[in-house]
């Protein structure tokens, strides 16, 4: 996983952590909404393991999104401190009539 991160997501870590965080947060929100409807209908939800799963997914999603923001700042600081560009220009195309 480290090699995939370094090869694909080194310049854009928020794409990895943000996507995972949003999916986790939304699934936790869906579970919590389901349990809210059940609670409004009068059933007891305190002893259900689904409640723990919903809360855990919500908190995990928030943490993943926060980790994405922090890694984005770290990557920007890394490249700026060494005067490196976050990308490389492979080839420059000059069209006809342009200098």
Provide a descriptive summary of the structure in words.
It is built from 3 helices and no strands. The protein is mostly helical and 99 residues long. It starts with a helix and ends in an 18-residue tail after the last helix.
Give the key terms.
single chain; 99 residues
Could you say which structural class the secondary elements and strand pairing correspond to? Answer: mainly alpha
**Regions with little confidence, pLDDT below 50 for 5+ residues:** none
**Helix and strand run:** HHH
What is the global morphology? elongated
What oligomeric assembly is this protein in?
single chain
Total strands: the figure is 0
Strand percent estimate: under 5%
Q: Sheet bearing the most strands, described?
A: none
